[in-house]
Specification:
The complex is a heterodimer of chains A (about 140) and B (about 375). With about 140 residues, chain A is an all-beta fold. Chain A is built from no helices and nine strands. Classes of the chains: A mainly beta (about 140), B alpha/beta (about 375).
């Protein structure tokens, strides 16, 4: 099945060693994900695109045990739904990004765990493409 | 707002699920508040109406009386009713009006709040990927807090068990069946560490509060409740708040509740130790314990011991959510903060009923709400 990224603009996938794309403020240095035109810290508009580090550590996490509601586009039934982890991951000393964790088992997820960026399939679009979303997997 | 704003009437339609419209419930709440105050609708000079589901709450004037008064519709997520009450209080304290009403009502479908991420400025893909879920955020925040301050999951169950015990004592609560800590811990996992019974449910209900100037209050009652402070804050940069694709690596910023609570105590001229009845936003059991510390009632991490000792029970030294809170009442967004104020007014008047009345004659109450995308309000009432 051909693969497509959900929101292709938020990462450099399918490049080798792909990265998420954020915005860094030239005035205060703070970084946001995804890109943003104005800085929420200092209101400057001097924002430029920045590729975010691929590796990070888990600073907060939970598990998603029920099928998400609208506007989730996965087509599985509630019975078919496979739980996934969700984490807030600190990428280097740049920014914290929220995303899926490939590890769904709460016994296997730890605070401070080292993870790296990956893509996971989670839905199929109307043209038969497998849709991918970024996620973090244990290093 | 020293002695500028008096609350002389409160009305609350029960929270739960009913075979009537939100507006019908709102009408009942208004008429209960008017009866409580000894007033008629024609006495009301200005109104603020809050709802998440009804676009134009002011249409309710067709049901209670088309008197031509200014009526402003208010929408501010979980802080909707606190915002309506704040606006009503400011109308009185400005000196421009003598009698104001804040009313709120909602009728939510079953299930967690969802919808378009764009409603709070988030990209569509965030929802399409299954990440735009309030329960998930609350669980991540609670899980981090438990980890940072070494608090057990059982303490979350203690919060929920207390809520349902208090709900059993409250005839207008939604969930009135007590559950044991083990039943709560063993119920379906929603988002770790929060199980099904550690979350409140969106439901239905309405509330109304009538405020007036000191001079007018004296004509209706010898024992008004004073609205001493009503403070509203939004998040600062770096706070970890409801729904975010990213957050700062700088973690020095505190939650908006901290600022709202500090400001309310300063404006009211009272301290947390003066408060005899506490109403906190317990969207989930974790939120209640975090808000205890954010509002200044304890240190971070102290909750484990306080809950185990029963300090937050009706007879404890920090009675929290004596009417069952959101966990036992559910959350009709437009009316939730009015339920908090309704309970405080009843407790301060000594009218909470034999089973639920806080002993020792409490003289001050504190109410806090908090919700997406990082909005908090704190209200202080005294008698």
């Amino acid at each position: 099945m051909p693969q497509k990224a959900l929101a292709p603009e938020i990462s450099t996938w399918p490049e080798e060693g792909f990265q998420l794309i954020g915005s860094q403020c030239a005035k205060c240095g703070e970084t946001q994900f995804p890109v943003q035109k104005q800085c929420p810290n200092c209101s400057s508009v001097e924002m430029s695109d920045v590729k975010l580090p691929r590796e990070g550590t888990i600073v907060a996490w939970t598990t998603q045990s029920f099928i998400p509601s609208f506007p989730y586009i996965g087509k599985e039934s509630a019975a078919e739904f496979v739980p996934f982890g969700v984490g807030l991951v600190q990428l280097g000393d740049v920014v914290r990004v929220e995303g899926r964790l490939t590890e769904p088992n709460l016994e296997a997820i730890e605070f401070g765990q080292k993870v790296e960026l990956t893509m996971v399939p989670f839905a199929t679009d109307d043209d038969g493409n497998e849709l991918l979303i970024y996620a973090f997997q244990p290093v | 707002m020293s002695d500028d704003v008096a609350i002389i009437g409160v009305g609350q339609h029960p929270f739960g699920r009913f075979d009537k419209t939100a507006m019908e419930m709102g009408v009942e709440a208004i008429n209960m508040a008017l009866a409580d105050a000894g007033m008629q609708w024609k006495d009301v000079q200005i109104a603020y109406g809050g709802s998440s589901g009804i676009g134009n709450v002011d249409a309710i004037t067709h049901e209670v009386g088309l008197t031509g008064i200014p009526f402003t519709n208010v929408g501010n997520a979980c802080a909707t009713s606190a915002s309506s009450m704040r606006l009503a209080a400011e109308a009185i304290s400005s000196g421009k009006y003598d009698v104001a009403i804040a009313v709120g009502m909602d009728k939510h479908p079953r299930g967690a709040f969802g919808g378009e991420p764009a409603m709070i400025g988030l990209p569509r893909w965030y929802g399409e990927a299954g990440l735009f879920l309030t329960t998930k955020f609350f669980a991540m925040k609670a899980n981090k807090y438990l980890h940072d301050y070494d608090i057990s999951q059982r303490t979350l169950a203690r919060v929920a068990a207390k809520a349902f015990r208090n709900g059993e004592l409250n005839p207008i609560a939604f969930r009135r069946k007590p559950l044991s800590e083990d039943e709560i811990l063993e119920s379906q996992m929603v988002n770790y560490p929060l199980t099904q019974y550690m979350f409140c449910s969106p439901d239905e209900g309405a509330g109304a509060v009538i405020m007036c100037s000191k001079e007018v209050a004296a004509r209706y009652t010898t024992e008004p409740i004073w609205l001493k402070a009503s403070e509203l804050r939004t998040r600062g940069y770096g706070a970890y708040e409801v729904h975010a694709t990213s957050s700062s690596v700088s973690t020095t910023e505190v939650a908006p509740t901290v600022y709202a609570a500090r400001a309310a105590f300063e404006v009211a001229g009272v301290s947390p130790s003066d408060i005899g009845v506490i109403q906190l936003q317990d969207t989930d059991a974790g939120a209640e314990i975090m808000h205890m510390a954010e509002c200044g009632f304890c240190e971070d991490g102290e909750q484990e011991k306080l809950l185990a000792e029963g300090a937050t029970e009706i007879g404890g030294r920090l009675p929290v959510n004596t009417d069952g809170g959101l966990l036992a009442n559910g959350e009709p967004i437009g009316a939730s903060g009015m339920r908090q104020v309704h309970e405080i007014v009843k407790q301060l008047r000594g009218q909470a009923g034999a089973n639920r009345q806080i002993p020792g004659n409490p003289t001050a109450g504190f109410a806090q709400v908090y919700g997406a995308p990082g909005t908090a309000a704190a209200t202080i009432l005294t008698k």
